[in-house]
Amino acid sequence: GPAAPAAAPVARALTVIAHRGASAAAPENTLVSDEVARRSGAEWIENDVQPSRDGVPYVVHDATVDRTTDGSGPVRSLTSARLDALDAGSWFAPSFAGARVPTLAAQLADLRTRGGRLLLEIKGPHSRAEVARIVRDVWEQRIARRVMVQSFDPASLRYVRELAPELPRALLRERLDADPVAVARELGLSAYNVSYRGLSARTGVVAELRAAGVAVDVWTVDDPERWRVLAGLGVTGVITDRPAELAGWNAAR
Ligand code: G3P
Ligand code: CA
Hints:
Layout: E1 15-19, H1 31-39, E2 44-51, E3 57-59, H2 80-84, H3 104-114, E4 117-122, H4 128-140, E5 147-151, H5 154-163, E6 169-173, H6 180-187, E7 191-194, H7 196-199, H8 205-211, E8 217-219, H9 224-233, E9 237-240, H10 243-252
Parallel strand pairs: 1-2, 1-9, 2-4, 4-5, 5-6, 6-7, 8-9
Antiparallel strand pairs: 2-3
């Protein structure tokens, strides 16, 4: 009889998650990098948060401001007045001079106005009171349905669950747990976000997690050859410094 038609490749798009905003094109974790990400077709923006000395959550990645601003010192040792005065753009390129280290509240207000979804990383260990302040900031903007919280720190995720059980949570891992599905159940995770290197050891875990209703967003991947591998494994999304390129790659498939 007639030859069977060749199986059509499964056209599964990867959710585009912009790592620290569009961090290859603009200074990371600023309102401008978030806006570039949005315009690039990112569905989610990943940002990091940690508190100032006076307990105000700020959007910044490193433990100190040295690399990404014109100031110096640990974020947790600087007052909000000091952080507000820093230039977070010039280090990247002179054209970004004047970009600020945003407060989480300012970043959320921007998201509320301009749209998009936020994958908010609680960076480093936080106390229950510090997590409560983050949750309160999210609540005050009334955009909780557009926010997912992630952390390497399970204790922070437990605080989020206690304080705001309806806020979706993701665990960040550099390596796979022995039983990721059990970990996801125990923490009530919506997503299990493992590094590209960590995942390569046991790729079958992706199907197990997805069958259990848990998303898998892999970080931080900027290479189209790796996007192809990950799409084949059935991962949900990719956290990338190059959201425009990933959106274009999705569209071309
Ligand atoms: O979202 C994953 C990734 O952001 C975790 O690593 O150091 O960039 O926060 P890092
Ligand atoms: Ca991060």
